[in-house]
Structures are given as structure tokens and as C-alpha cells.
């Protein structure tokens, strides 16, 4: 009986974590406000490109990748954008996300991978997580304290 009392909470946590691993379109859109606002300053229609990327249209993802190298990628909007790229990686899956990113310039690949590095929570992005995307550019060690 003692074993069951230990295993049951772990199993429930596993199920909850698995269900929450891929964010819904509504969850992604919910934290896009600062990115949308910042993008407007550079006349970039962030909402339209985000909706296309959420719908798994590669042109939308391409445009969001390109945004990572623009003047609009600053402040709170940049933080939101990093988190959104992380969410989209989960939604698209490693193979498809990497395929689109592989078609970008080295500068854009480097910027997107740096944005993903920034978005990863403690202990950071590991090579085994999304390995095809991980290998597309060098990584900077971002030191973050554990939660």
C-alpha cells in the first residue's frame, strides 16, 4: 500500500505534465500582447503571422523567424516572442520546425536558436530535447537560477 501512495501522485503528475506539454492556440495567443504591440512599431503584423504559424503554415513561421532579427525584437515584446517560438516548437514538433528553420539564413537561425535558449527554463535546453532544431546553431549558456 505504501508503494501505491508514492506511485499514484507521480503518475498523476506525469499525466498532467503530458497533457500540458503542447500549448493550445489560445494559450499561445494569450501571451502575445507585448510582441504584437512592439511589432506594430515596425509595421509588422505579428498577429496575422502568429495565426498562420499556429495553423502550421510555414510562411507564418518564416515571418516570425525573420522578426527575431528586426528592430521590433526588443523589451517585453522580445520576451513574449521567445516564449512564443518555444511554444511553436512544441506545436510543430522538432522535425517540421527544424525543416523550416533550416531554410533560413545563418543569421536568422542563430537568432532563433538564441531566442529559444533564452526561453528555456531551468536547467536549460538540453541537446536531447528537440535535437534537430538544437543542432542548427551554436548555443549560449544562459545562467538562470532554479525556481
Task: Describe it.
This protein has 147 residues and is mainly α. Helix content is 66%, strand content 0%. The chain is built from nine helices and no strands. The longest helix has 19 residues, at 2-20. The chain is globular, with a radius of gyration of 17 Å.
Q: Can you give keywords for this protein?
A:
mainly alpha, single chain, 147 residues, 66% helix, disordered N terminus
Helix amount: 55-70%
**Nearest-angstrom radius of gyration?**
17 Å
Number of helices: 9
**Strand count:** 0
The general outline is globular
Q: Give the termini distance in whole angstroms.
A: 32 Å
Largest sheet: none
Mean pLDDT: 84
Residue stretches low in confidence (pLDDT < 50, at least 5 long) are: 1-20
Helix-strand sequence: HHHHHHHHH
Strand proportion, as a percent range, falls in: under 5%
Question: Topology of this protein?
Answer:
Blueprint: H1 2-20, H2 25-30, H3 33-40, H4 46-54, H5 58-67, H6 75-92, H7 94-102, H8 106-119, H9 131-134
Helix pairs in contact: 3-6, 4-5, 6-7, 6-8
Short description:
The protein has 147 residues and is an all-alpha fold.
